[in-house]
């Protein structure tokens, strides 16, 4: 028998377009320990996205705050930074970043319903409408995804969409918290939320973003040094002008400059489409790269040419993880990537320490990693227990071989 839909949260709604309305909204929020939070922004033509709307929900009311009309939001951001308050988001990376850009800090207590859903066995990553449907049995109208939120006045459809984006956050938080407690995974969730916030506001120093440019793999070490320096200049220039870096200089032009490494302005002009008036700044970046000693130039990234045993065992661990996740109500792709599984296989095959990957840290290392290492060590075997079952495999712990039998062999 199909479940009956939960009652749609019917809360008072307030469109905040005046400083007096904002003051009343903030007074209400200041007393709330739990706040649903979302933003609408436009980021296609700026270095940092332009904030266009803020949506907030509490147990008692819904707000859509228009930052173009109601005045500065400094006090609002401070409310989100209160360590005694929990901020509920869905896939909240950009919302957390917006708070970070506006206030210089991220909310200390974030609950991301998308992550929580993966930790209780739901699809990961799941869209907001899918989460609301699967968890709360409600249907959402999602017709404003590509709207230009800078235009005023807002249409009734835009305002309705904005309210609905936070309407279901607190009911979803309540249900997911109940499940996390039931499965004893609340601490797992808190660890994941903190990691997600950290990644949202801080560039990973282990990731060199310039290496992601298409065509970078064809360059030698000196050309890589030029690409790195020009990329750094482009990023700072884009931030200064608040424009997307690729609008100022396309990636293919950056690669062409790195390949040619011009030393004079007339040589640089042979590359069409460069920003005007920036010739000397680009040439300075090239000169810095050329002045580096050879040993300080970046090395080309080596591609993983895994041996057949690493590929095979990595695939085996993928199967084991999928079955483990199904049996334990987890989203397998939230637990580990295929690349991390292969990194573990490589370390075991080479007799080296485990790699520093997510699967080897925190709750994953305690709850999941031992199962996989037991397979690799031969302490556990896999058998097909029921081909018709959703989780057809069974892990069987093997008895250690008798030492006398081994000697006889």
UniProtKB/TrEMBL annotation:
Name assigned to this protein: HRDC domain-containing protein
CDD domains: RNaseD_exo
One Gene Ontology term of the molecular function aspect: nucleotide binding
Top-rank taxon, per record: Bacteria
GO biological process: nucleobase-containing compound metabolic process
HRDC domain boundaries: 220-296
InterPro entries: 3'-5'_exonuclease_dom, HRDC-like_sf, HRDC_dom, HRDC_dom_sf, RNase_D-like, RNaseH-like_sf, RNaseH_sf
